[in-house]
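One record is kept unedited as follows:
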Amino acid sequence: MTKPLRMGVLTPSSNTALEPLTSALAASVPDCSAHFSRFTVTEISLSQQALGQFDDSKILAAAELLADAKVDVIGWSGTAAGWRGFDADLRLCERITERTGIKATTAILALNELIERMGIRKLALVSPYTGDVQDLIVKNYEAIGVEIVAERHLDITVNHDFALVTPEKLYELMGEVAEARPDGVVTYCTNLRAAQLATAAEAEFGFTLLDTVSTTVWGMLGAAGRDPKTVRGWGRLFDCA
């Protein structure tokens, strides 16, 4: 009998999208459950106040609460390393494991691993962020050899409001960036209701959808030694083991 898998997920406090989506993804894996710990994130911008929300000490305190539940893996389901720099998530995972003894991953580290494994070199971005945040994300991917062939952003700064963007609007934006013929499209925010659109979008537009809620789950399954292919109906990324 397979040992139950408890996935611990670090969640921005004002996020309302990732918990139901992550729980639905976990439900497709035998004997798997998702457990959440929040820390304050209410604004996404390049202001000092907004950047300070991602201070490791706050995230580590939330991780320690997950450790009380004896979770098997901890995943940071957030995308801040996209504009802060990918090394921020590498350091964070090291510190989580040092503090709790539990393996850790993040939405962005898993996303970047998938991009490499799947040979994606032409990427399109869909996000709710402002132009200056999006520009930094684009530059960070270009620095690792990934060409951003198209992007759309919605110029929203209030994290809570990201979840108010309708799935229909997100699907429309995916269709727009698909015209650039990317290998993959990233819905780059874990407070977007996009993960469930993967099968339909991939069938219609031909790209692989790399939603960041889904990449977090993919990364946690791998870190816990589980086969991501057990997840069906949530897009091609789970075919990558």
User: Anything to note?
Assistant: The radius of gyration is 16 Å.
